[in-house]
TrEMBL record, chains A, B:
<protein>
    <submittedName>
        <fullName>Haloacid dehalogenase-like hydrolase</fullName>
    </submittedName>
</protein>
<feature type="signal peptide">
    <location>
        <begin position="1"/>
        <end position="18"/>
    </location>
</feature>
<dbReference type="GO" id="GO:0016787">
    <property type="term" value="F:hydrolase activity"/>
</dbReference>
<dbReference type="Pfam" id="PF12710">
    <property type="entry name" value="HAD"/>
</dbReference>
<keyword id="KW-0378">Hydrolase</keyword>
<dbReference type="InterPro" id="IPR036412">
    <property type="entry name" value="HAD-like_sf"/>
</dbReference>
<dbReference type="InterPro" id="IPR023214">
    <property type="entry name" value="HAD_sf"/>
</dbReference>
<keyword id="KW-0732">Signal</keyword>
Amino acid sequence: MRHFVFTAALLAAGPCLADPLPSWNDGASKSAIIAFVESVTDPASPDYVTPADRIATFDNDGTLWAEQPLYFQFLFAFDRLRKLAAEDESILTSDVLRAANAGDLETVAAAGEAGLLEIQSVTHAGMTVDEFLAESRQWLATTQHPDTGKPLVTMTYQPMLELLSYLRDEDFTTWIVSGGGIDFIRSFADDTYGIPPWQVVGTEANTVYAVGEDGTPTLSKEGGVTFIDDKEGKPVGIMRHIGQRPIFAAGNSDGDFAMLEWTTAGDGARFGLIVHHTDAEREFAYDREGHVGVLDRGLDEAAGRGWVLVDMANDWRRVWPDGE
Amino acid sequence: MRHFVFTAALLAAGPCLADPLPSWNDGASKSAIIAFVESVTDPASPDYVTPADRIATFDNDGTLWAEQPLYFQFLFAFDRLRKLAAEDESILTSDVLRAANAGDLETVAAAGEAGLLEIQSVTHAGMTVDEFLAESRQWLATTQHPDTGKPLVTMTYQPMLELLSYLRDEDFTTWIVSGGGIDFIRSFADDTYGIPPWQVVGTEANTVYAVGEDGTPTLSKEGGVTFIDDKEGKPVGIMRHIGQRPIFAAGNSDGDFAMLEWTTAGDGARFGLIVHHTDAEREFAYDREGHVGVLDRGLDEAAGRGWVLVDMANDWRRVWPDGE
Ligand SMILES: [Ca+2]
Ligand SMILES: [Ca+2]
């Protein structure tokens, strides 16, 4: 009897309930997300999870915003390198630095991760964390995407913004767990995603505390990286910062494989999501090959592991917050 | 007129307002804390701070719970060393390890921080983070203090527990920033202080992600330390984990000097608090000398820097949750 009344009340309320994911087309991906969220938030469900344990982690590049033709943080590093080299050419101490300064992305790409880290280390060092944040914010506010001409901060994925809001409305905490630099991401995560600095996990630069002659303390980036939050580093970063295993993880490349593996190996209901870039018309289409966002093993194993592979072209009604 | 009505309402409500810090004696320390909290939480105050920026950081050993005769984590490490050595004596590969196993604390103390880190590395390695947390919880639940005979988890300071609650009631977030191991502190911080794992910053051990032959992923402590969250490391740890400067910091030793310096150098109203161990009768009396909790520079400079030096003997009506 109580059950009947409850169901009737829900049915009556039904037509008034707003769709929490309006930019997602109806289909298996959207249904799976909603079914998971309902199962872990319904106190009567065997899969119920208390709010404190509703941890959801998101990769950033290629998962929450675009990453082509290159991670935006590297576009920032290249712009900064050109600016620094214009003032003092002697900082260009290696082939990869000279190539980056000349805009020769092929040579830079050929140098792989080590080359990119060298550029990042040179361009992100020798300033305080506060100066870095201000520089990054200024750059993001004034820089357009090289292909689309749109402001970079508008190249987030509307369906993923809705997913973040939906999870938070259901008392999840949402975290970014990115291979990108923690300070770079913090410079826009609160404004762009509603994610405060302490819910950002990322690659960490060598940071040093010092007190100036006038007694003013500073934290400065001294060059070099102390922690790489990518691949097997992602579960390590999660346990360092969050201290418990997520129940939901979303990524787009094999750099997220370990995070999804760690997340979904936990007891109880778990959710793994991979954004598959299938939409050459509205965004970019890529997976098994390229400089960024390589998705190979994840593509092969997602189904077997019960991870939801989101097909951008078919699952998303709209890609961009300000457009189609 | 509006002001008058508001004041009258406050006066009328006055006798009903519970004292947020009943275990603190009336005096300068208690008044300063309450005046600070009121100034940053009153929207009409020039010092008003939005809740998202009300970050309060606390050292743990000697600030939230006792640290004599030795940090409790080292008592844990010694007990674990004896247990491991009883199974396999060959782990005792150095003088400091043999001394710790024999209970020769003087030799261990003479080896300084390096000796303690060696013991910690040997005893905290070779297990998963989950196993470590379980082991630590089990030990804390069954171990009494060597001098007082009280369960260790009851040796927290009641006035500081009240301060944590008071700040949280006023929409602060409360963080631990400790030189102790992050996993050790997380094993009891939620139950003991109401502080969730992601609000614990501490010294970090080398942690490795691996997948077993059966496909089960684990995070294991492999020995060695990757980050020491002490002295100049505390502001670094704060910016890694929290990503913004606190407005309130509490500590008890020179290991907290940089944290208080960094916190109180920020703009706007700031609060630095040092617990001064002056109470040989109810707790322990120590400051400028000893193995643990040395407070020397902080004692000299607190007044000049506007930090509140809490005199345990005089400022605290009660020390322990379960007693005097
Ligand atoms: Ca990615
Ligand atoms: Ca301490």
